[in-house]
């Protein structure tokens, strides 16, 4: 008679749960086999939030993985349907709390497309600038937290130093540190404070100067390489099957980026000027995913500098359009997607001409990225699972919505 042993790791797990018998003799040999089910989470430092992985183990080797999500589900899509289009922005910037500005952007782009609004040029360039600052804030968080999960403490201090430099200019502009609420249908909340572009340029220069500190500390580290090179290879076929996108897909050689492939905001002009580059790497392992994230920060720095130069040379002008007090969207439907820091973020908007959407479906990047784990983890061992999970770059609120 074989048995299955259930083990919990995370808050509330006291160790081994009682054994219970399970029929069958495993491989059919005379020797009894023991399967172990290991719960990583739902609260565990490796899960970036309230995520649970139910792993089936053969010794220390993983033979099955079941991601169990929903612990943070708040019904965001249904809440969208009972709020007007201005109130939706408050909810939209919270599912991926590291990419708040980018989340807001998808909503207003969908509404503007339905209404046929022409956004002022100044607002378009400023949105592009803020989207790239937000992208760097997201990436720097993972550039610091990922080595921490592998035992390297110092990089997180360097990464947070750069985050605070960028957060200062974002907070000055919007008044918020995480949930900016700066997008509006038709543009932005307000124009820039006096001298803000100069301070944003100085912040970009400071991060560019100090970014090699993080790179030198991690990329060449032999322990970090031993834990990541060749570990967790994600093939382009799995990318396509599970709809994985963003830095994770590009680290597997998938050359896809909505900023270039279906340009929005000012990305078309930035691409023509040669500023926008799509970073790819063929290996598809944990190291490649970290490397792509680091290189994307450098690209974002170039994009930020280009936007600042453009805005500095631009005459003063409006950053929004005048809208009626009660905003109603014409009947119809549209789909607006953006290249969020973690991957493709899409909003499917259906309107019946009211002040609230009839349906607003959210396609988040993290859900698809995590969906590939059951195909990616079998055959690996527990320590490698920690390295692989951390390199998938997800936010649990973005999974659960």
Automatic annotation (TrEMBL):
Catalytic activity: a quinone + NADH + 5 H(+)(in) = a quinol + NAD(+) + 4 H(+)(out)
Location of the protein in the cell: Cell membrane
GO CC annotation: plasma membrane
Topology versus the membrane: Peripheral membrane protein
Enzyme class: translocase
InterPro entries listed in its UniProt record: NADH_Q_OxRdtase_suD (IPR001135), NADH_UbQ_OxRdtase_49kDa_CS (IPR014029), NDH1_su_D/H (IPR022885), NiFe-Hase_large (IPR029014)
Lineage: superkingdom: Bacteria
Keywords: Cell membrane, Membrane, NAD, Quinone, Translocase, Transmembrane, Transmembrane helix, Transport
UniProt function note: NDH-1 shuttles electrons from NADH, via FMN and iron-sulfur (Fe-S) centers, to quinones in the respiratory chain. The immediate electron acceptor for the enzyme in this species is believed to be a menaquinone. Couples the redox reaction to proton translocation (for every two electrons transferred, four hydrogen ions are translocated across the cytoplasmic membrane), and thus conserves the redox energy in a proton gradient.
UniProt name for this protein: NADH-quinone oxidoreductase subunit D
Lineage: Bacteria, Bacillati, Actinomycetota, Actinomycetes, Propionibacteriales
Gene name linked to the record: nuoD
